[in-house]
Amino acid sequence: MTHPIQPRLTQVFRFVRHSYADGVAELVYAFDQGEELIERVRFPAPPALTPERKHAFNAALRLLHYIAGVSYYKAGVPPKIEVADGPLDDATADLLEALYLHGLAEFAYRNGLDLRGRIAFPRSGEPSGKVEAAALHLPKRTLVPIGGGKDSLVAVEAIKQIGGEATAVWVGNSPLIAACAERTGLPMLNIQRELAPGLFELNRLGAWNGHIPVTAVNSAILAVAAVLYGFDSIAFANERSASAATLEYEGQQVNHQWSKGYAFEQLLTDWLHTHVASDLDYCSLLRPYSELAITRAFAKLTPYFDAFSSCNRNFKILGPKPADRWCGQCPKCHFVFLALAPFLPKPRLLAIFGRNLLDDETQAAGFDALLEYHDHKPFECVGEGAEARAAMYTLSQRPEWQEDTLVARFRSEILPQLDVSQLALEPWLHASGEHRVPVRLQAALAAIG
Q: Known NCBIfam families for this protein (predicted)?
């Protein structure tokens, strides 16, 4: 009889094999000589793969195998990585090493681990590919991932405004995301990701656990989907502040949102152009904008007010979900409330959340963290501390908000310690020029700003 594996004592993490048949991708991993961990990704009603797209599809599938492996690798973080189908070219190894190091930086920080110098994918020594892959002549239409929150809905409406053809896509089975996708009125594509059951067993046996760069996994799934179904672009809705680190720890930037940031976007875009198809674009449509600029745009999209939610308690794999769409206690609830407040009539905002979070003294610590007052920014997808301070300052100057407990506290206790010249809202509403939005979708940028 085989003895149960001790994940933290394993020596090798192995990418065993991957395959695809009839809409199901199988991604297989193992530690040492332990049992295989088999993840399945299910693509609904798949069309037959044309011979012209076969090579590109296989390249995208291979990348998905490598990227999705981050969910399993972190269970043991062994010192050696093996890839059964041979060593990688430099561009692929560079992308994966950056993703595993930075995408797992929060996981490492919380577990007291240092992954620097530990993550090394086998390399063939082939130079990084600078030559573009062949064009696939993909149909000019866009996959827009829906997350259930405000950002993806702003992206959807911007593409609709320029008459772009788009499909709302999501991975998993969240009823809230499905309801949001339906509200967009777009065609829908729902892909299922089934984690290997063995991962939960490893957790029971004492595996390392924590945050993984799930946006990277979903991005790789959508690259496969784009080739399979025929889309020339994947447009996420990751904002400018996703690139800002949460904190610095022992000389390393730790960013909860690294795989939503600009560095990852550039790495993946370039990789897809050189390894999959020169005409497959991956971008974030909202990259030029701050969270405050995006909430201002969302404040005009009233048909979504009763459908969206950014509250993370709705999206936990295990555990109870809140009865309504906003728990009112988590950093996401705090930030979305604060960021929308300058742009919505107060009664409208309170109707969305069902309460006034800024008139509740028990929420002080949560808002302090957003303001980076006596605390660092939360490990959540929230805006920069300076954005939160600008929003709070704006409210502190408005009579309808001034009497609320936490706004009054900000005026008396926090504001005197701040430089008022740094608190203007207006500079946050300008777009930056830094983005990788393809020419075909650039008109949508004007629809947002």
A: MurL_Xanthmoales
CA angle 87, 91, 97 (to 5 degrees): 75
Alpha-helical segments (H) within 285-430: 291-298, 331-340, 346-353, 364-370, 385-396, 399-402, 405-409
- Report the alpha-carbon distance of residue 272 to residue 67 in Å, rounded: 13
Determine the residue type at 91: A
Structure tokens at 67: 């990227």
Say if CB 254 and CB 246 are below 8 A apart. Answer: yes
Tokens representing 230 are 């025929």
CA dihedral angle for residue 210, residue 211, residue 213, residue 218, rounded to 10 degrees? 90
Show pLDDT as tens, one digit a residue, over the chain (449 residues): 355 789 999 999 999 999 999 999 999 999 999 999 999 999 999 999 999 999 999 999 999 999 999 999 999 999 999 999 989 999 999 999 999 999 999 999 999 999 999 999 999 987 765 689 999 999 999 999 999 889 999 999 999 999 999 999 999 998 889 999 999 999 999 999 999 999 999 999 999 999 999 999 999 999 999 999 999 999 999 999 888 877 788 788 888 889 999 999 999 999 999 999 999 999 999 999 999 999 999 999 999 998 888 787 754 444 444 446 799 999 999 999 999 999 999 999 999 999 999 999 999 999 999 999 987 777 777 889 999 999 999 999 999 999 999 999 999 999 999 999 999 999 999 999 999 999 999 999 998 97
- DSSP for 403-431? TSHHHHHIIIIIGGGS-GGG--SGGGGSP
Q: What angle do CA 446, 231, 258 make, to 5 degrees?
A: 65
Distance in angstroms (rounded) separating the CA atoms of residues 445 and 159: 9
What is 102-162 written as a DSSP string?
Answer: HHTHHHHHHHT---TTT----B--PPPP-SPPPP----S-EEEE--SSHHHHHHHHHHHHT
Please list, in sequence order, all residues whose beta carbon lies within 8 angstroms of the beta carbon of residue 125, skipping any fewer than 6 positions away. 87, 90
Which residue from 280, 293, 307, 314 is spatially nearest to 239, judged by alpha carbons? Answer: 293
β-strands 166-171, 142-145 pairing: parallel
Structure tokens at 447: 């629809």
Compute how many other C-beta atoms are within 10 angstroms of the C-beta atom of residue 404. Answer: 19
Q: Distances in Å between the alpha carbon of 192 and those of 123, 166, 173, 320?
A: 31, 20, 7, 21
Helix, strand, or coil (residue 278) = coil
DSSP symbol at 379: S
Q: Which of left, alpha, beta for 380 (phi over 0: left; psi -120 to 50: alpha)? A: beta
